[in-house]
Amino acid sequence: MSLLKTLTNSLRPTLTRPSTTPNKAYAHLSNCNLCPRKCSVNRFETTGHCLIGAETAKVNVIAPHRGEEPCITGFHGSGSVFFSGCNLRCVFCQNHDIAHQRNGFDLTPAELAGWYLKLQDEGRVHNINLVTPEHVVPQVVLSILDAREMGLRIPIVYNTSAFDSLDSLELLDGLVDIYLPDFKVWKAATSKRLLKADDYVQTAKESIQVMHAQVGDLSFTSDGIAKRGVLLRHLVMPGKEDEGREIVRWLAGNVSRDLYVHVMEQYRPDAHVGKRRRGTKGRREGEGVEEVRYAEINRAVRDEELGSVRDAAVEAGLWRFCEVNEKSLFHL
């Protein structure tokens, strides 16, 4: 069945919010403005920055995942769906083989819905965790609508870089239970160099505020599993602790002091960081230091850098922090 037919057939009488109508999803795909790249292409005929079309979403991995925060992973894991084709190009991405490559298999919204049900019924996961879905929001919307008709009962987690368009977030209003955004960097120069998106900071601010307006502060079940709200991540990066301090201050002053925050220490050089610069191959010993790419972040984060961001968060009034055991597999 084509996506156009699926869009028409998925228009349920129980839907009351115009932000979730399939017709609006279809309109965005035909003139794509689903992320701040705003390619404006007709994805039924061609592709834009993400290189993903309209009929399907490209998925790299679907599986119960135990590497998230404890309140997301719970006892049985999080039902993670890793989408290929991330709209950012973070040079340090620890999942670049998944997010930046176009590897995987193409799934229609109906097929995605079927996988959600398998994760719920057979995997017994606590939630459906959609990882880097910013560029396939219409397909995601349709898959959630279908899955709910099929009996999906567990929360939907939208796991994002916060490089989202407000149009996409409007489509998701009423469908997403838990927003799991990153706020990566504070300075435009940093986002341009390390994320390849010079408008990231303002976009992230607006997106996070909209997410919080939709679902509020994070709430939990009686056994400590997240059920609704925002869980905000910030990965502290080497030499960028000043940006981290600005981020947590902004969050406290402009989103909520009750925001649930994970100040992350898992940074390690990966992807393009530390790789040999072009033109430096073959240097002999004594001819100079071999140059590497992104040398300023080619090291681990120091304890004092991490501590300064955490201290700034507390001083700003934030108090709800996620603590992850050092032996955790958490790395996303």
TrEMBL record:
<keyword id="KW-0949">S-adenosyl-L-methionine</keyword>
<dbReference type="InterPro" id="IPR007197">
    <property type="entry name" value="rSAM"/>
</dbReference>
<dbReference type="InterPro" id="IPR040085">
    <property type="entry name" value="MJ0674-like"/>
</dbReference>
<keyword id="KW-0408">Iron</keyword>
<dbReference type="InterPro" id="IPR058240">
    <property type="entry name" value="rSAM_sf"/>
</dbReference>
<feature type="binding site">
    <location>
        <position position="90"/>
    </location>
    <ligand>
        <name>[4Fe-4S] cluster</name>
    </ligand>
</feature>
<feature type="domain" description="Radical SAM core">
    <location>
        <begin position="81"/>
        <end position="211"/>
    </location>
</feature>
<dbReference type="InterPro" id="IPR013785">
    <property type="entry name" value="Aldolase_TIM"/>
</dbReference>
<keyword id="KW-0411">Iron-sulfur</keyword>
<dbReference type="Pfam" id="PF04055">
    <property type="entry name" value="Radical_SAM"/>
</dbReference>
<dbReference type="GO" id="GO:0046872">
    <property type="term" value="F:metal ion binding"/>
</dbReference>
<dbReference type="GO" id="GO:0051536">
    <property type="term" value="F:iron-sulfur cluster binding"/>
</dbReference>
<feature type="binding site">
    <location>
        <position position="93"/>
    </location>
    <ligand>
        <name>[4Fe-4S] cluster</name>
    </ligand>
</feature>
<dbReference type="InterPro" id="IPR016431">
    <property type="entry name" value="Pyrv-formate_lyase-activ_prd"/>
</dbReference>
<protein>
    <recommendedName>
        <fullName>Radical SAM core domain-containing protein</fullName>
    </recommendedName>
</protein>
<dbReference type="GO" id="GO:0003824">
    <property type="term" value="F:catalytic activity"/>
</dbReference>
<keyword id="KW-0479">Metal-binding</keyword>
<feature type="binding site">
    <location>
        <position position="86"/>
    </location>
    <ligand>
        <name>[4Fe-4S] cluster</name>
    </ligand>
</feature>
